[in-house]
Amino acid sequence: MAVLLSGKELAAQIKEEVREEVGRWKAKGVTPKLVAVLVGDDPAAVVYAQAKEKALKSVGMAYELVKFSATARQEEVEAKLKELSSSPEVHGIILEFPLPPHLNKDRLLSALSPLKDVDGLTYENRGRLLSGEEGLFPATPQSCLAILERHGIEVAGKHVVVVGRGETVGRPLLPLLLRKDATVTVCHSRTVDLGYHTRQAEILIVAAGRPGLITGDMVKPGAVVVDAGINQTEQGICGDVDFPSVEPVAGYLTPVPGGVGSLTTVMLMKNLLKAMSLQGCS
Ligand code: NAP
After folding, report:
1. Closest Cα to residue 170, out of 144, 191, 151?
2. How confident is the model at residue 210 (pLDDT cuts 50, 70, 90)?
3. Which CDD domains match (predicted)?
4. CATH class of the domain at 139-262
5. What is the pLDDT of residues 135-190, one digit of tens each?
């Protein structure tokens, strides 16, 4: 039976580290502040925004939600992002998705200061990630690596297979893993014989958004399996890994819920603190 790699205790531990650092900033008269910009009223985006607000405030960070109606003009939203980017009181900015279809995502992201881009979505941060330079990078891939690192699982020299090449998880994982000297294979929906590739993995990281995609016969015995999927099903929230068949085969396995997803918000908090240091706050 696989050893379960819980994200919950780790999240609590990182939250404590963040709280202490926030305390040090506040003692200097600076409150770390994140602003989220939401256009429209997508129910899931509203729920995520509220959850972030609660979490950030619980560690003493400031949070503000700037809302635009679903009919907001491109210029209005761009102007707001530029204003927030130049405000010294704001240290991090998130543009919430999905956006209404009439808005141009790339142009909006271009209006965002890369130094405040705590989701790591601007071209500048993506370029920095690829070229091995310091910058702000997406939270979920960092959560996958943190869960391995804090459980003492080395990635250097290992064959890591990533399933999914989405913008928020799979794609940024590739350069992050290369930085850590892993040998990486990335699979996607056009990969032929997915199981052939996943069975080669010493560490398998799955972020496809397909419940039950990875079954026990697709996992090398003893492998480390990190499930970043979060899927809402009739039975509740589940990952991309078929837990009952994979648990007896894998050596280590992250549960869903209670695994990678538990770490995303604390990684965002860490990104906000990193943004402050990149901005030269003192
Ligand atoms: P996405 O942008 O839709 O990307 C999904 C990726 O999976 C795509 O690259 C797709 O391939 C690939 N894929 C889909 N079906 C596949 C199949 N049958 N075989 C192999 N690959 C397949 O999704 P995402 O935003 O990266 O999110 C992925 C998952 O992570 C979702 O479950 C999401 O909820 C979860 N997530 C979790 C967190 C967290 O906090 N833990 C944060 C963000 C996302 P193509 O590129 O060929 O289409």
Report:
1. 144
2. very high
3. NAD_bind_m-THF_DH_Cyclohyd
4. alpha beta
5. 999 999 999 999 999 999 999 999 999 999 999 999 999 999 999 999 999 999 99
Binning pLDDT at 50, 70 and 90, where does residue 129 land?
very high
Best probe residue, ligand 1, of 165, 167, 241, 271 (max atoms within 8 Å of C-beta): 165
Name residues contacting ligand 1 (CB within 6 A).
140, 163-170, 187-191, 194, 207-210, 213, 228-231, 260-261, 264
pLDDT in tens, 17-34: 999 999 999 999 999 999
CATH 3.40.50.720 in the chain, residue ranges? 139-262
Query: Residues within the annotated binding site?
Result: 164-166, 230
Superfamily assignment of 29-114 in CATH? Leucine Dehydrogenase, chain A, domain 1 (3.40.50.10860)
